[in-house]
């Protein structure tokens, strides 16, 4: 089956009781049992829920995985995935990782004996050089948030697997429509379903998908034991979102390219970050492992004051955190999404005070560009 067919039908079988073509919201805390040990596969809603199960099957199919587990947020999905490593283990992480991931790893998980090394994973040689005897996982973001650095998924997977380490990829920026990391050797894919998978800025959630049966059994155990599950209603919202994922991502990609092209030529913009731009040093790699370039664009206007002018004078774009919704969102990574990252680290990886990030939405492309143009003219 093609991607759109899977998105609409996998996990979305008509309800056997009523024939409803949309999976119902099973808003229940428990399930009646016919007798001791006799039930219909569902006992307690933290452990199993039909709406959540439908979503887990759906996203696993879209990523080409066998198993999926949905969580209350993207960070909960990442936290559960890190339960596959133990005290004394070492994890290699993309140095330009999301601020929340950086905070979880350095402020919480490091307190429990897990060692983290943040390296430039755009060069598989850096990953190989950072591997230790106790390295058990490589955690990638590609493209990274927000400066769009690309990691060669196959090359990093080959290096990690040669030393017995799992590879995890946060695929939130691309969605499975534009990038399927497991086709390049990645073991586990995580998403913030809050973003493109939901697509409507009305729910928070996360998911982890994988194919290894032993690791899947452990993630299922963690999901049930820790209980950071996605609610039935939020599961239903994401199921609604994935049905239109293909058409939405096509437009995000189309408009993202147009906005990036506009920004690259604007005299007030010092630098843009967009894998679809020929000026991006990893443009060819992005073309090779991605179906498109997406709707995330970052650009640098030089100073905090100039960035403030743009951020506070846009009219159509909404100043807000998050991304991947139908509306265009604009943000300031240094003080918003990556405020928890050390200032010297932000500067080193390009998250300057003048950097602005745009999640290009589904409004008319010319209206998005016109709004950015009038805001930039205020500098």
What's the topology here?
Blueprint: H1 3-9, H2 50-63, E1 67-71, H3 74-81, E2 90-94, H4 99-108, E3 115-119, H5 124-130, E4 135-141, H6 153-162, E5 166-170, H7 175-178, E6 188-192, E7 206-210, H8 213-226, H9 232-243, H10 245-265, E8 271-273, H11 283-289, E9 296-300, H12 304-313, E10 318-319, E11 329-331, H13 343-349, E12 355-359, H14 365-376
List keywords for this structure.
single chain; 379 residues; alpha/beta; Aspartate Aminotransferase, domain 1; five-stranded mixed β-sheet; 38% helix; globular
Notes on the structure:
Helix content is 38%, strand content 15%. The chain is α/β, with parallel strands linked by helices and 379 residues long. It folds into 2 domains: 3-243, Type I PLP-dependent aspartate aminotransferase-like (Major domain) (Aspartate Aminotransferase, domain 2, 3-Layer(aba) Sandwich), CATH 3.40.640.10; 246-376, Aspartate Aminotransferase, domain 1, CATH 3.90.1150.10. The protein is globular, with a radius of gyration of 21 Å. The N and C termini lie far apart (50 Å).
């Amino acid at each position: 089956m093609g991607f759109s067919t899977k998105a609409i039908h996998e996990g979305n079988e008509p309800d056997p009781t009523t024939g409803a073509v949309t999976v119902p919201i099973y808003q229940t805390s428990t399930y009646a049992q016919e007798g001791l040990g006799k039930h219909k596969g569902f006992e307690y809603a933290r452990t199993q829920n039909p709406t959540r199960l439908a979503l887990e099957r759906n996203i696993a199919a879209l990523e080409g995985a066998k198993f999926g587990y949905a969580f209350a947020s993207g960070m909960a999905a990442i936290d559960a995935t890190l339960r596959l490593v133990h005290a004394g283990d070492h994890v290699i992480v993309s140095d330009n990782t999301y601020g929340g991931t950086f905070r979880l790893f350095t402020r919480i998980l490091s307190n429990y004996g897990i060692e983290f090394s943040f390296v430039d994973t755009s060069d598989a040689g850096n990953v190989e050089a950072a591997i230790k005897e106790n390295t058990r996982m490589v955690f990638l973001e590609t493209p990274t948030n927000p400066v769009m650095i690309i990691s060669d998924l196959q090359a990093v997977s080959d290096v990690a697997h040669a030393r017995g380490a799992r590879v995890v990829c946060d695929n939130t920026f691309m969605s499975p429509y534009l990038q399927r990391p497991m086709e390049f050797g990645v073991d586990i894919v995580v998403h913030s379903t809050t973003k493109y998978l939901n697509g409507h800025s009305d729910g928070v959630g996360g998911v982890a998908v994988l194919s290894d049966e032993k690791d899947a059994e452990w993630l299922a155990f963690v999901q049930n034991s820790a209980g950071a599950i996605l609610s039935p209603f939020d599961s239903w919202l994401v199921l609604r979102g994935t049905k239109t994922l293909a058409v939405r991502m096509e437009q995000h990609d189309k408009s993202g390219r147009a906005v990036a092209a506009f920004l690259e030529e604007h005299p007030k913009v010092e630098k843009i970050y967009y894998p679809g731009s020929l000026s991006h040093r990893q443009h060819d790699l992005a073309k090779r492992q991605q179906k498109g370039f997406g709707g995330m664009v970052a650009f640098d206007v030089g100073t905090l004051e100039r960035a403030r002018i743009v951020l506070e004078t846009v009219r159509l774009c909404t100043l807000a955190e998050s991304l991947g919704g139908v509306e265009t969102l604009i943000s300031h990574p240094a003080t918003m999404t990556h405020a928890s990252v050390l200032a010297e680290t932000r500067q080193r990886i390009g998250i300057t005070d003048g950097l602005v990030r745009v999640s290009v939405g589904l409004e008319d492309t010319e209206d998005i560009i016109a709004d950015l143009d009038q805001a930039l003219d205020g500098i």
